[in-house]
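Narrative of activities, Objective 1.

The group set out to show that a structural description can be obtained from nothing but a protein's sequence at a throughput compatible with the screening campaign. Below is one input-output pair from the validation batch, recorded exactly as produced.
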Amino acid sequence: MGIISERAGKHSGVSWHPIPSLGWILLSALVSLLIWVIAVPVLAIPLVVEFTGAPPQTVSAASVAAVPVGAGLIAWVLLWALRRFLTTGLTLWRAIAIAVLVLSLSGPLVGGTTATVKTTLCLMHLAVAGVLIAGLPRAARGTAGQGAAGQGKAIQKRPTRTGA
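Output recorded for this entry:
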């Protein structure tokens, strides 16, 4: 009669992805910046936004690169916290991320001065969200439930008895 852990052995249920979380955050900024480079210098689209009561503002390369980094860092911390303290943390994080994406699309749709500007800015938002929503959980996979320091200990399920 032996005791077998469901997580024991070579395949411990912990996977690894070669691009760490910061890499995904930087990739989201690069993708957004690439769209900006294609739109502004190459296609000569003037990315100007105008909100009620504010003067028109040109969307700069610096803001296009900085905003995804800030959003990505916030998403990363939120993902860590939700996975650390909730068993459904990843599912909740994805729901929050999609809700934030939907809300963020209101900015370009309301503030864009032309249909081309609105389309370009929405494409940037979708690209950044796509990279972060797809990438951050991949980089963090296997770290949930491993304790405050993420010591790499596999979650041990209740042992099952085999044999009789």
